[in-house]
Amino acid sequence: MLTLFEQIDKGTLWKIPGGIHPPECKTLSSHSAIARLAPADHYIIPVPQAGDAYSLTVDVGQNVLKGQALTHGEGFRYLPVHTPVSGKVIAIEERPSNHASGLPVLSCVIENDKQDTLVSSIHPRLDPSDVVKMDNEAILSRIQQAGIAGLGGAAFPTHIKLKPVSEIELLIINGVECEPFITSDDRLMQEHCDEIVSGITIIHQLLSPKRIVIAIEDNKPQASEQMRHALNRSTLPSDLAKVTVIPTLYPSGGEKQLIQILTGQEVPSGSIPAQLGILVQNVGTAYAIDQAVYCNMPLIERVVTLTGSHVGQAGNYWLPIGTPIDDLLGKTQYLGNDDDPLIIGGPMMGYMLPNRHAPVLKGTNCVLMPTQQEIAPERKEQPCIRCGECAVACPAQLLPQQLFWHAKAQEYDKAAGYNLRDCIECGCCSYVCPSDIPLVEYYRVAKSALKVEAEEKKQAELAKQRFDSRTLRLEEEKRAREEKAKQAANKRKAAMSNNDKDAVAEAMARIKAKKAATQTENVSDAPQDKVAAAIARAKAKKQTKTVEQTENSVPTQQEKVAAAVARAKAKKLAQSIAPVKEPATETPDPREEKVAAAIARAKAKKAQQTATNEEPGLTTQQEKVAAAIARAKAKKAAKAKESRNSDACDAAAPVLDAQPETISADEAKKAKIAAAVAKAKAKKRAQAQSADADSANAETSHTSALTAHCATDGSSADISLTPAQQKQAKIAAAVAKAKAKKLAQQSLTNQEHAPTEASIGPDSAPEDGVTLADAKSQKSATSEADEAQIASPAEIKKAKIAAAVAKAKAKKLTQESMLTNDQNKD
Amino acid sequence: MIEIFIAIGLLSVLALVFGALLGFAAEKFKVEGDPIVEQAEALLPQTQCGQCGYPGCRPYAEAIANGEKINKCPPGGTATMEKLAQLMGVDPEPLTATAETQIKKVAYIREDECIGCTKCIQACPVDAILGTGKQMHTVITDYCTGCDLCVEPCPVDCIDMLPVGQTVQNWNWKLNAIPVINLSEDAKC
User: Any idea which positions bind [4Fe-4S] cluster 1 (chain B) (predicted)?
Assistant: First the structure.
């Protein structure tokens, strides 16, 4: 068993299935040497199509030199285009394309100045030793920058082909040129065999294949002879490269068919020859590689066969890429009419040119201008008779009949099932068809439909991906937003439960105090005071409610106690405002009297509201309120007890009376000590701040009240003696509050210590404390008010500020108690 | 008499065995999701346009699996409808949309009129519009599915739905054979 290379060396050839022998008609153009036509006035260079990343480097009106790149691009697949002549860019616009569709594509139009000034990068031919020294990257870069595409017709970028992923063992140089009429490769091989071989040497340097086969059909004996001589002259080892003459058969020049003929191997469906370790390059491409590497000459011209009976001077011409086809016609004595067909490529695989203004492209190897005799009038398509000739002729071993049925019925997926994509569109089936069915055209339609479908599917898939990722993104954004909001809420909550809350309350109190001060200063009109009073009332009420709620929902003793204490504080505070304000009634100013009267009215109203079962016998307002509160409390306690099914409900009332005495004994002493401390403090403060403005006073006085409160400063009796009179009222309010608080605390302690209370019931004790606190605070507040009134009748304003401060305090307490409730609930 | 009990017992045992077997198989080889939904969704054009009345292609695919009509997808056209009919085993029905809406269109923004409000960007289900606040927006036409959803929100009506032009890439071959097949050996060459 011989190895593949031994067989190749022996010259063994394999047969391909199918194939035809169409009339060659090559003699029309093959006898004359490659000529040049007079340069055209304009050249049209289509710039790469959308999808290729590139940018134009020239502008309209810019002068360009021959061989200058018109585009600049990045990426491995990028292939530049060059201007074939020197001159000026006169337009960059859509021009008809050299394509079966004739659709316009973006093109640069170059006006030829006929100077042929070369761009500076093109240099005289290098010595072969210089090229040997070049590394592969430099060579590939030169090939890419020269814009070399496969010149056989497919125009695939050559530098990609020359950088295969797998190792290339066999290099095939395709000089088969099996299509009828075309002789451009034939003439090129005859006239430029040395350059072609030098191009092959460069490919050998790049890929170092084990064998190089130059395949030429046996109808081109001169070409094969010339190539043999050139090979012998070259530096390539004689046992490495050889010229193989293959029998003439259409379509031997197809890449896959040629591989099959030379190696007997079939390129699997959907793969490329490189996967078999084989690379096929056209002879024209080899020539272009030589030019690019040795002279840095870009691919700006190629050999084109102009043939057919309609052309007066049939032959091969060096045509600059971008030459308009209609320009050629005038210079080659075109005999036909404007509506006679022009075919780009050979008769088997070419296409009709829809627009004669289209330019010559890199893949244009032939322009066929046939007469009416050469092409008969279109014959009507007959029904398929199932003769099977097409299947015999097919070189790809497909079933053209089946493909035809499905393509005609537009069942493209079924046609695809018959390996439609392996069809090379060689046209053998159409050629042999006795019914004149244009089979290849059907396949082309089906192929493009499948291509569009595949493209749409791909787009749909991408669209879905984008849609999915967008949906995901939006969801994530939403979640992040919610998370953030939650965090902020938590933070706020945490801040509220910490000391920040105090700060907020303080700030609020300050604002209120200021407002109150300005109010009194400006007009001190009754409605505003009423409002303030109403607010205080509402707050107290609200607190009571909350506390009640807590009591109902959380019936443990401790919580109830705490709630009751809070309630008591708030109530007391509300009341303590009144005594502080009431002194105003006795001031000489009639306006102040009015204000005071309004306040009193408001108080009376409030008392009515809070204490619904008011007793008519009570003389003073304070007494009334206190009585009402006590009553309400007793009632509530009784209720709570009832709900707990306790039988000690009757005992609640006596305890109410009994408790105050015991507490007040302790209370008196403590209050005195605290009062002394407060006095000292107030004095010091007053001295320090005597020069302060009123507003500042309001603030500081509030602070002092706070301090007093914090220090559990309990007494008010001696405060009136301090020289700083303006602070008295305020401090008094704060003190009253503090006292109430302390009392409540004490009563709580008492409750815990007193065994009698435990037997009576858990709810009664705090209520006792509260009642006591209420009574006491009322008393002290009254006394304070009296004192304030005596000492400074002009200081009503200050008293009012104090009232405001007290209000703020009440508010804060409300919040605190609410918080306590919350915590209890938690 | 005993034979009857044996038979009953035997059948009961068999029933239990097979029941257990079936139950096991149902658990072990459980089919996750509805494969018909996946297939229907694969056929839909994924424009996410909502012209079918469902908020996207997947919901419509699910609705089709539940017996919804197959002719409600204008972007898919008749081809999609026929494939869906084949998949669901129902008769093809003419599309609810008119022929005009079946032409593939993509959105274009008249860029000098765009005020940069980003409303179209928010409306685009497939992220095919590029731009940012107070900057000109533009449609990435390759990504545009022609769903129409961006036209409505535009406050200055600067979005046009234009039919996709034919290019060399998407051109469909016409049946215009080159009648050179009559060349015979005796023709003048």
Answer: 49, 52, 57, 73
pLDDT top residue among A322 and A587: A322
Q: Are B180 and A97 in contact (CB < 8 Å)?
A: no
Is B120 part of any known ligand binding site? yes
As a whole number, the mean pLDDT across chain A is 75
Q: Closest Cα partner for A190 from A217, A213, A214, A220?
A: A220
Q: For residue A397, give the nearest of A433, A438, A436, A426 by alpha carbon.
A: A426
Left (φ > 0), alpha (ψ -120 to 50) or beta: where does A199 sit?
A: alpha
Task: Report residue A180 CA to chain centroid gap.
Answer: 56
Question: Structural domain tally of chain A?
Answer: 3
| For B173, nearest residue in chain A (alpha carbons) | A445
The answer, yes or no, to whether residue A211 has pLDDT greater than 80, is: yes
Indicate yes or no: CB of B176 within 8 angstroms of CB of A441. Answer: yes
Helix (H) / strand (E) element for A307: namely: strand A301-307
pLDDT at A234: 87
Question: Quick one: fold of B103-166?
Answer: Alpha-Beta Plaits (3.30.70)
**Which of A97, A180, A438 shows the shortest C-beta gap to B177?**
A438
- Asked which of A309-323, A411-425, A525-539, A553-567 is least confident by mean pLDDT, the reply is A553-567
CB contact under 8 A, B166 and A370: no
Q: In this structure, is residue A373 part of a structural domain? A: no
Chain B nearest-CA distance from A182, in A, is 12
Of B168, B177, B188, the CB nearest to A441: B177
pLDDT at A655: 40
Nearest residue in chain A measured CA to CA from B56: A467
Q: Which of B54, B180, B188 to mutate to test the interface with A (most CBs of A within 10 A)?
A: B180
Alpha-carbon separation of residue A16 from A4, A13, A418, A503, A517 (angstroms): 17, 10, 20, 96, 111
Supply A505's token pair. 């309350």
Give yes or no for residue A300 having a pLDDT over 60.
yes
B117 has binding-site annotation: yes
Q: Let me know whether A298 and A416 are in one domain.
A: no
Q: B146: which chain A residues are within 8 Å (Cβ-Cβ)?
A: none
| Structural contact between residues A177 and A220, judged by C-beta atoms closer than 8 angstroms | yes
Same fold, B35-88 and B103-166: no
Is there a contact between A467 and B46 if contact means CB atoms under 8 Å apart? Answer: yes
Domain B35-88: assigned CATH number? 1.10.15.40
For residues A512 and A640, membership in a common domain is answered with yes
Instruction: Give the pLDDT confidence of A334-363 residue by residue, as tens digits.
Output: 888 877 888 888 888 888 888 888 999 988
Q: Return the domain boundaries, chain B.
A: 35-88, 103-166
pLDDT in tens, A703-733: 444 444 444 333 343 444 444 554 565 666 5
Q: Verify that A406 and A526 share a domain, yes or no.
A: no
Is residue A374 assigned to a domain?
no
According to DSSP, the residues that pair with A714 across neighbouring strands are none
Query: Cα–Cα–Cα angle for A447, A453, A455, nearest 5°?
Result: 105
Of B46, B128, B174, the CB nearest to A464: B46
| Residue A324 φ then ψ, to 5° | -65, 140
Chain segment A642-657, per-residue pLDDT in tens: 455 444 334 434 444 4
For residue B21, pLDDT over 90 is answered with yes
Residue A694 confidence (pLDDT): 43
A448 vs B contacts (CB less than 8 Å)? 171-173
Q: Which domain holds residue A467?
A: 382-497
- Tens of pLDDT, residues A415-465: 999 999 899 989 899 889 999 888 888 898 899 888 888 888 888 888 888
